[in-house]
Structure formats: structure tokens, C-alpha cells
Amino acid sequence: MPTRPQYAHTEEWSQIAQLCLWPEQRRYELMRPVVLYGDLPADRARETGVNERRLREQADQFDTEGVISLFRPTRKQVEDHHRSLPPPMRQAIVDLKTEFAGLGLQEIAGICYVRFGRRPSPITIRQVLADGPRPTVTGRRFAPYASIPDPAARRHAVVTLHAEGWTPTSIGRYLELGRQNVYQILQRWRDEGVAGLADKSRANTRKRVVDAALKQEIRQHQENPELGEWRMHAALKQIGIQVSPATCGRIMAENRQLYGLGKQPKEKKEPREHPYKAQYRHHIWSVDVRYIEEHQIPGIKGPFYILSILDNFSRAILASNVCQRQDEMSYLLVLIAAIRQHGSPDLLVSDSGSIFVSKQAKFIYDKLHIQKEQIHKKQAWENLIETQFNIQRRLADFHFAQVTSWEGAKLEHERWMESHNHQSHWAHRQREDGKRTPAEVLDQAQGHIWEAAQLHRVFFTRRFARWLDRLGYLRFRQWSLYGEEGLAKQQATLWLYGQTLTLEYASTPLTQFTVSFQTDKKRLRTVKLLHRFETQYRLPQLSLWNADEVKWLLARRLPDYRLRKAAPSVVSSLAQLSLF
Questions:
Q1: How far is it, in rounded angstroms, from Cα 23 to Cα 36?
Q2: pLDDT digit string, tens, across residues 47-93
Q3: What is the CATH number of the domain that holds 289?
């Protein structure tokens, strides 16, 4: 028996670490005061310089498993871990790969989870396939989809594989069937059950609407040459006949050929050259406001408005916003958003609307070197954005008519803007570079770029930042003004233009006031609520009182600050003596 060297007993970790011969012995000595004497892991970690969390985990594992927790698993134990899988699962893994070699490891794991309630790792599955049992299957369970003669049987094969955990992609590759067809079969199974497995007749069983009586009725109304297919549809609907406008148009076209009824073909006019045709990106911008009158937002009486800016060359919408008032502040918010992201254009085209030709707007045009042009009266076609609003009518008006909240209107507006900029445009159908969408044509081009400090001097001469309190109010020039309770403790922005004061957050107007000034033209004399906007920041909690029962003060004059009293001067009778 070898003699062991003798050392003095010590609790100093630096000396104990030098005496440890094995990693397991060192791990035990690290945690011994914690598991044996109940010392705090934090104190032991500072004493030894090891990670406290790791030390705590090792001590907990030692309490649970004992001395075995000190030993790391060997490579052989790791390699033999897959043998802990139940024999049926190991056999199923081998059979699945034999039946269809295209199954991936993750797909096999998903099938095992459905069948056995346990999801083995891909590494374990790979080891089972390498040295697992011999397969018990020799061929396919199901023939290709087109080779199964019974329609119900082949659809049942799709449902069976899906119930076993196969993904639609694997089912399609295994049965040689399109993935979309797999989804349709599973959809029919979910909706109809067993009845959805059989073939269905595709015969048209709808009742025919067009008959001789209907054609005669349309012929009588068609004597008015100004009626089109939509007006014809409305006239028939008024007397109780439901016919689509397309059907009316088809019958009216037949009557024109047979009886010479309806509108006479108009002479084709030569297309006029557009007066504001852009030669390059950000050469000319167009801006205008569109009214959305059909909606179901209860908090808004009348229409809401969409204010947009268009690049005439690429036809891309550069900036747009949904607003409840068409005022100067709403326009300037959209204008600065476009200039911040894309720079400024050489020329800006609009109609003679007051928000486009105001003094503040002209001041901005002059400072940013933007040439401003106005279209001729009653010549809306000269403003190119009017044509793009027709695209908005087709893409978004149906959805705008369905929205029931201001947040829904915002979402539909974002969807329209995304669709407009990323769908193929008629104006780009013959481009040689293959770019078809406004976003592709615009690309990363920018106009004249301005520094943030320059834009701040031009736009924000009357812009102020204030923090909302817990009730949604802010303090501005001795007045307490309401913004939105749902934005408590957030920073809002005030815009002061003339006698209009607007509170907004993240480019969304919250409230708007009319103000009057005192003789110094700075202090506010009166503040009256002009409009409270419907926003997505409203609190979901219902109010305890109805709006008609209690009149809330959204603008309140605060008392003036009291002057601070001057500290009394104390004259000491003692004179300080000199040190030297």
C-alpha cells in the first residue's frame, strides 16, 4: 500500500485546490461547506472565485442524486443513450425511413410524438437509423395518389397519413400529389367529415336569372341612352329584380347590336401631354386630400380624410396619413415625414387648397428651395395623385366601409399604402429594366437631403415637447391641457400655428384647441376645445359616467406662480479675524 504524503489541515481554498488530484474531488471540495455545513453559496463563490449560479446548481444536484452527480457521462453513455428508447419506437423509426426515404429527421420526430407521446432528438434518430433493428416493412403502404382507383380511398390515405403526424409536404412527396391539393383534402375532411372523401358533381345547379322577361325589361329601360350598367342595375333593384351590373352590361351590349339602343360610342380624343411629367425620381411631387365618407366609426360624424404625397416619376406614395381634420397641421406632419425619409423635391404640385398655400407652407417651400405650382381650376387631371386615388378606391374603399374603429382605419390605410407601392403599376409595364412596382422604381433614390437641425428650424419654430401626467394632462404656459389618459407618463408634442394649438403623439393628433393671446403675444388669454380626436390610444376601461352627464374640463387655467420671498439678510456684528 503506497504511503500518502501528509499535509496540514486547512480551509484555505487556494491550498485545497492544489491538493485535489481528480476533477470530481475538486467539485466536491468546492460545494462541501455548502452541502455539509449549510454555508451560503454566495459566500463560497466569493471565497473560491467560481460562478455562484453554477455552484448553487451543483449543490442542488448533489442533494438530489448524491455522489453520482459529481461524475460526467462518458462518451459511451452518450452514444448508448438512444438505446433507452422503447423498442417499438426504435422499430417505428427504422420502418418509417424504409417506407419513405424522403422523411427528414424532424418529421420522423413529429410522427413519433404523435404515436408514442415522446419526441426524440434528431441526433438520437440518426443513431437509431445507423445501428437500430432491421426494418419489418418491405414496401409502401399506399400507392401513388393517381394510382388508387377509388376516389374515397385515395383521399382517405391523405387523411390517414396526416393523422399519424405526417406533414402536408411529406404527404405530397410520398403520394406524388401537389401540396395545395393536400390542403384542400384536409379542409374538406375538417368541414364535412367522411362525406367529404367522395367525388362531388361540378354541374351548375344555380337558377338561371336571365330570361326573356328580364331582357325585355332591360330593353325598355335602355331607351334612356344615358343609363350605364350600374344605373341599370340600380333601376332593376328598385323594382325588386336582383341582377349584377356585369349581367346588365352584357345584355345591354346585345341590345345595342340588335336594336341600336343605348349610348352611342364616343369619339376617341387624342391624349394630352401631362403638364407635370417628371423626368427623374423626386423631380415632381403631387399632394392632395381625399374624403372617405362611407365608414362605420361611431366616434366620427361625417367623413375622415387621407392626405398623401406622390412621387410623379415612380408613382410611389412617399408619405400618407389618415386624419379627422384637413387642416394645416395635418398637412405639415405628412410633408415633414416625406422630407425626412426621402429628401425634398424640385417641384411640388397641388390644387389651390388653403392648407397648401398658407403662409407657413410658403415659408417652408422657400426655405427648402421647393418650387410650388398649382393646377388650373376644374382641371383635376393635372394633379397626378388624383389618378392614383382611383387605385385607392378599388383597393381600399370596400375595407374602409367596413371599419368600426379609428385603429381599424389606420390598419386599412397601411395595407393600402403597402399594396399600392408593391403591386405592379400600369405606368411601368413596358420598362426595359424589368421594374414593375413603384417601390422598385423608387429604389433608394433621395432628393435634396437636409440636416435635422435645418428641418427643426424650418418646421419646429412653434413646436414644443411636454410630458403627460398620470391623468393625461400636460402644462403649457400656465394652462393644463388634456392629451390622452391612455398615454400617461409619455412625452407629447404641441404644435402652435396661429390661433390653433394641437397636441399629438407619434404623428397622431390627440386634441386641438383654439387660443387667444395677451398683449405680449406669448401668454395665452383663453383656450377652448376645438376637437378631440378618436385614437387607438384610448383606455379600454369604460368610464363611470356618460359623456353627456359630466362635462370634463379639458383646458383649465392654472394659478400664477407665487413669487419667492427673498431670504432675510443677516448682518453679523462679529468681524472675521485675519488668519495672518
A1: 19
A2: 888 899 989 988 998 888 888 888 866 455 555 554 578 888 999 99
A3: 3.30.420.10
